[in-house]
Known about the structure:
Layout: H1 3-43, H2 54-75, H3 82-93, H4 97-105, H5 111-136, H6 143-146, H7 168-190, H8 195-205, E1 224-225, H9 226-237, H10 243-257, E2 264-265, H11 267-285, H12 287-295, H13 302-319, H14 323-380, E3 385-390, E4 393-397, H15 399-404, H16 427-438, E5 446-452, E6 458-470, E7 473-482, H17 484-536, H18 542-568, H19 571-575, H20 578-592, E8 597-603, H21 613-634, E9 638-646, E10 649-656, H22 678-688, E11 692-697, E12 703-710
Parallel strand pairs: 8-9
Antiparallel strand pairs: 1-2, 3-4, 3-7, 5-6, 6-7, 9-10, 10-12, 11-12
Amino acid sequence: GDPWLALLVFIGGFSAATSMVLISSMTMATMITNDLLLPLVGRVRRLRFLERNLLECRWVSVFLYILLGFWFERRVGESLMLVNIGMIAFACMLQFAPAILGGLFWPAGNKVGATLGLAAGFLAWGYTSLLPSFVRGGWFTGELLSDGPWGISWLRPEHLLGLNNLDPVSHTVFWTMLLNLGLYVLGSLYFQPSQEVQSHAEEFVGALSSGAMFERTVRREAYVDLAAKREKIERLLGRFFDRAKAAYMAQRCIQAVGLTGKGSLTIIELAELYSEVEKYLAGSVGSAAAHKALGKAGLFSGRESQELSEVYAEILANLRARPQDLIRRIDFYQEREHLISAHASELEEKVLQLQDQILMRLQAEAQVRESEERYRTAIESSNDGVAIIKDGRLLFFNKKFAEIFGYAHRSDIVDRPVSLIVHPDEKLPVLDLSLARQQGDEVPRRYDFKGVRKDGTPLWIGVSAASTNFRGEPVVLAYLRDVTSRRQAEEDIRHLSRRLIAGIEEERKRLAADLHDEFGQALTALHFGVQSLENSLDPDDQRRVRCHQLVELIEGLADNIRKISSDLRPDMLDHLGLVSTMEWYVGDFMKRWPAIQVAFSAVGFANQRRLDPRLEIVLYRLLQEGLNNVVKHAQAAKVSVQLTYSHPRVIFIIKDDGAGFTQEARPLTAGMGRGGVGLIGMRERVASVGGTIDIRSSPGKGTVIRAELPAKQGPEEEPA
Length: 720
């Protein structure tokens, strides 16, 4: 009736149960990793990385073991008491007893017999103990226990072969031990082991009776270098642990054997150190894996193996055993000597292989150095600057790169940000472009930017860049060239082109004005004069017909002059503006070419009705030349013309559904003819006002011409 006492008892029981779970799970995890996982790693090379992650593997084993216990409790445990579950587990673990005791005290026992006994014992345990638990948990029908499988009563799991006088646990122990022991003995007697296995068994069984044999041997010379052996031991332990822990364990082994402060060892001390290392390693990876790893470590040299054989010979002399025992031991040591000799031969073969590998590596390193020298010569002798850029910083660059930007010493800019060589006006776009390329985005491979030398002098740089990998990390490989002279020449050409186009337009304007003012007025006067003469003649007079013909001729001539004047320079462009002039021209075009439908639209000109006169004439010429090319080459039925004002740019697009052309094969002079300037002329006109033009076409898919022009223009230049 005391609640506090009940709580205390509950806490104690809960703590005990928790401790049991922790201890059993950690023990099982250690056995799983040492006795199951590590042998599997030794056979499968792809799993070698698990050797350095044994702790994590044990965590996973603990989790899976606890999860399995939880599953068993949910499925079976609810139908059994805790003591019953413990008895089932006891009967299971009892199956290891024959193999363990036989291995300790019976030299004739072998692996085949132990395997047969364990297999039979576990099968019997599963049938007589585990299966009834599953039946009581509801997995199978109760008829399996009462009637036996297929109704055979002498196969009932808890009364096998009619044995009815034993409780379930005793029944399980009887049958499992009978089968386990019987097959263990029969298998060991029937299947004879190899001589090596037999020697190991006899050595293991008689281990307790052979103590202190090393102490009765003749004192040996200390010639084994302890530092070299320690290095090999640390290298071996480094396969399973990190470097610091491997060094710590090696030092602990040396201290345990009492070798601290010594520089050289005797063969006996080396054997003791070998045994101590195997013991320490077995505590972490299991005895089998530790023995196998030490066997492959090559800890004994040829001379050391020979001297160790002599020590064993002295031990044999001190044994004073019976002749038959001595013969068996001699056979054992002869076999060991044979194994040591074979091991020495393997070591010699491995040394030769290692020498061949070292020679191949030296040759490969020489080839690499030669390749690096050729690469360095090519890069350093290049007329272009070469740089590797990582995270916006100059990781590497050649001598020409430093010369372009006026740096005498590379150390002045190595590992410095790229912005150091970029003009302040272009830092942001250049850095954005470099980072986007390094991140794998689609960016132009070639472009120009304005740089700055060490003394502050600006210059123009042409760049050809690409993304690549350097030491497993993304970088930008850039080739740079000083293009200041080229940019200046291009600017001079553009300046001359602007002046030439301005002069041409001015001359067109003057000719249009002359045609309109002089010829137009003269034709108007002539028209009125001939018409007055026609009106003054009698209706029957034949000269009246002739005058009427002259009037029609004069009117046609006036229309041609107006058309020529409009082609040269339309008056409405100066008076009504660009949009109205384009609408008039499109309407006039469809009257002259009714088979071609032209859709014209203008956006953004409600509050910006007039542009700079230079822009207006360029856009008008683009429309004029674009429609002329449609008539002459495109064979199109529909044309779309779009004019958009989007501050601070004006965008002009003309698109048709005509035949199109292959841009690589079609010359840039396409469209040149009478009164036309072709695509080259269109490019020059757009460039004269600081704009860009993009012409795209493909056979059967029409042509698209897109021009972008800055709305704001600089001061007007005098024409040439």
